[in-house]
Amino acid sequence: MSANSSTRTFRPYTGEKARIARAYDYLVLVLALFLFIGSFHLHFALTVGDWDFWVDWKDRQWWPAVTPIIGITFPAAVQAVLWTNFRLPLGATLCVACLSIGTWIARIFAYHYWNYFPINMVLPSTMLPSALVLDAVLMLSNSLTVTAIFGGSAFALLFYPSNWPIFGMFHVPVEAGNSQLTVADMFGFQYIRTGMPEYLRIIERGTLRTYGQVAAPLSAFFSALICTLMYTLWWYIGKWFATTRYLKRI
Amino acid sequence: MATTTEQVKVMTNQNKFPPWYLKDLYRYLSAFAVLTVIYMGFRIYQGAFAVSTGLDSTEPAFDVYWMRLLNFELVFITLFTSIAWGWLWFTRDKNLDKLEPKEEIRRYLTLTMWISVYTFAVYWAGSYFAEQDNSWHQVAIRDTPFTANHIIEFYFNFPMYIILGGCAWLYARTRLPLYANGISLPLTLAVVGPFMILVSVGFNEWGHTFWFREEFFAAPIHWGFVIGVWFAHGVGGILLQGVTRLIELLDGLEEAA
Which chain B residues in 28-87 lie under 8 Å from chain A, judged by CB atoms? Predict the structure, then answer.
């Protein structure tokens, strides 16, 4: 336990005081673990969850654009508290690790074991490399501006390449029913859902399709631009919520 | 050098587990254990009966296996709220101005335990059973707002974390001087904001009735839940309030070995 205090000369606690501080740290750690699994996961699932749930939603245009834009929100807000007050450079990694734990548990027990979706169909994406870089940039620069521009951009740009080793194999072409489609599409057609992508939306619609194989990098760069703005916005949202005010009445 | 009676007393207290500042440790661990059993029990129940009896709400078996469960939950939630909030209120400390620093330190750690149990309930409601809602509604047709997962997610999990958040708020308000003298804004945000998620259930069900019965998680119909969960960031403010006060209290505490 430590906090930046302008009036206090920092001297590490020893003996019982140190044990009390350590006990408090552990309690906060447990609290933070469940808080961020629960809250970040709900926020993420209800905004970009469909892209994360299903392998056939993981397209070249929307998935690399929207996932980092939503994924950078909680990391920025938590960094604003943990870095500013405690000099802990782990806000982003903490949030994203918690999200990964939550999604993996749900995919295995809620999708695979309850409703028999193949686990390969519901593999969650990862933002861990992006989060590690975001934390590292903040730690090395100690600057909101530098982290928003370079960290935010890196967060988005790293998303697609860090997920490609996991999902690339599902994008190889196969021929079925006299049509060429991907293995991911085959999963979709074999396991009919109410959230079928072809029913709810048309994948890869728009003129971006004209650019062929560079659709994913273009989406990633667009995401990078928005991430720099989202990072700054959510940094201040995090700071606003971390108020220490006491009110007379509510 | 001889060992005095006072030193022996200090040494004995040091070896005591849990130490005075973690007096509620076993209650805290028990709360985790009880909640884990309840939530895992729900999941096992769903695994056993959802496919066989939970797909058609017009079937008589649906009433037996699911609507009875809903009624049981509502009674349980009502009783639990009355008992938990009533106990916290009626056992409140009426002499907070005479609170010893060591006791205040202990209560800050206990408040952190309460919030921790609250976040554990938030995990089950916001993470596991929330995603499971998506999974179930891919394969089950929504012919009722009380689906096999909604009955657990909306009418047990959501009320349960709200009750536990309320417990944390009441504990702070009735047992810690700073929280009794003023209403902590971040603690209130962290409890009231997620409460609004329960209110959003109304909009969710209304929208699913009128617009679409499919499950599409990113749809704007669900964004009320999202805004509610942002208020969980109030925990950052609770942490800062707690740390600031604990440093004051620890600095004033006499050094013990």
Answer: 43, 46-47, 50
Three-state secondary-structure class, residue A176: strand
End-to-end CA distance of chain A: 30
Q: Nearest 5°: CA angle at A39, between B69 and A37?
A: 90
Assigned token pair, B253: 């505490």
Residue A84 counted as domain residue? yes
Closest-CA distance of chain B to residue A177, Å:
24
Q: Which of A74, A125, A48, A137 is nearest to B235 (CA)?
A: A74
In 3D space, the residue among A241, A243, A229 whose CA is nearest the CA of residue A72 turns out to be A229
Helix, strand, coil distribution of chain B in percent, nearest 5: 80, 0, 20
Q: Write the ipTM.
A: 0.92
User: Residue A53 has what pLDDT?
Assistant: 96
| CA proximity to A57, closest of A161, A204, A169, A178 | A204
Residue A4, domain member (yes or no): no
Can you give the residue range of the structural domain that contains A189? Answer: 15-248
Q: Are B112 and B21 in contact (CB under 8 A)?
A: no
Interaxial angle between packed helices A159-167 and A215-241, expressed in degrees from 0 to 180 and rounded to the nearest 10: 120
CA torsion sign for B232, B233, B239, B240 is negative
**The dihedral formed by the CA atoms of B82, B198, B59 and B139, expressed in degrees to the nearest 10:** -140
CB B250 within 8 A of CB A21: yes
- Tokens describing residue B249: 């209290």
Taking the Cβ of residue A58 and every Cβ of chain B, the question of whether any pair is shorter than 8 Å is answered with: no
CATH number assigned to the domain comprising residue A48 = 1.20.1450.10
Tens of pLDDT, residues B188-238: 999 999 898 988 998 888 888 887 767 888 888 899 999 999 999 999 999
DSSP B233: G
Average pLDDT over residues A104-113: 97
A159-191 tens-digit pLDDT: 999 999 999 999 999 998 888 888 998 998 888
Write the residue in B46, B113, B127 that is nearest to A102 by C-beta: B127
Number of domains forming the structure of chain A: 1
